[in-house]
UniProtKB/TrEMBL annotation:
The keyword DNA damage does not apply. Keywords: DNA-binding, Transcription, Transcription regulation. The gene is purR. Residues 110-256 form the Phosphoribosyltransferase domain. This is Pur operon repressor. Coiled coil: none annotated. Residues 4-73 form the Bacterial purine repressor N-terminal domain. It comes from the Bacteria.
Length: 273
């Protein structure tokens, strides 16, 4: 049974949003709604214009028999800046200050509203790059990586500091903690988690000395793979030289006063074109 255009538009929009970075042939929509491809093309034009106008993303059309339409959920630069300002405002409270100058983020990483936003913002920076996998370290980075991976439509892999029997054979490396130069730690990744020659995006919640991110970079090299980029939510104050320099951060901690328990955060170096 044919459906009305209004119903088609709603269903097409929902389907595209639920399948980002997925090439969808027009025949799928044509059969789904028992409508001609010309009608589906007109519907997609409406959706495309609305997405672009509202900053929802854009539709990429590929012509030909093997073509179709692909939803790219890239945010506008001004929307990213607004989100990061809101993030700074949410985190700029003394109650979030933890020992060591860290900022409490766990509640936000458990809130779907913030988690989806963070994932989409980070993914927007890498929409135009080839990414095969998103990598993070257990445990706080897992929800971030999962959200980013959804918007990029790629798998995410979890680096652990202790092996699990369910992981099978692993590759392990020793690395120097960035915040403590005299401490050597270990991280491991299952051999089945990452294909050789992959292009990997690193994400994490916090960066201080950069030891964890640098360790993941070394681990990626063990798989003969390439680091596409590294992005963290928060960049902490660090007196010294970080072990990693090529990274982006959504926010940075500018000032911490442990005596009166005040904290100041501001936008990091994150930006999209």
């Amino acid at each position: 049974m044919k459906v009305k255009r209004s119903e088609r538009l709603i269903d097409i929009t929902h389907y595209l949003i639920e399948h980002p970075h997925t090439l969808i042939p027009l025949t799928l929509f044509s059969k789904r709604y028992e409508s001609a491809k010309s009608s589906i093309s007109e519907d997609l034009t409406i959706v495309k214009e609305t997405f672009a106008k509202r900053g929802i993303g854009f539709l990429e059309t590929l012509p030909g028999a093997a073509g179709g339409v692909k939803y790219i959920p890239k945010m506008k630069a001004e929307d990213v800046e607004l989100f990061i300002r809101d993030l700074c405002e949410e985190l700029n409270y003394s109650k979030r200050l933890l020992p060591g100058g860290y900022v409490y983020l766990s509640d936000m990483l458990g809130d779907p509203k913030w988690l989806r936003g963070i994932g989409r913002v980070i993914a927007s920076q890498y929409m135009d790059k080839d990414v095969d996998s998103v990598m993070t370290v257990a445990t706080k980075g897992v929800p971030i990586a999962q959200s980013v991976a959804f918007y990029l439509n790629v798998p995410f892999v979890i680096v652990r500091r202790d092996s699990k029997v369910t992981e099978g054979s692993t590759v392990s490396i020793n690395y120097v903690s960035g915040s403590s130069s005299d401490r050597v730690e270990k991280m491991e990744l299952s051999r089945r988690s990452l294909d050789m020659g992959s292009k990997v995006l690193i994400v994490d919640d916090f960066l201080k000395g950069g030891g964890t991110v640098n360790g993941m970079i070394s681990l990626i090299e063990e798989f003969n793979s390439e680091v596409v980029g590294a992005t963290v939510i928060a960049e902490n104050i660090f007196n010294g030289e970080r072990s990693v320099k090529d990274y982006t951060s959504l926010i940075k901690v500018d000032k911490v006063n442990t005596q009166d328990r005040t904290i100041e955060v501001s936008p990091g170096n994150f930006s999209i074109e």
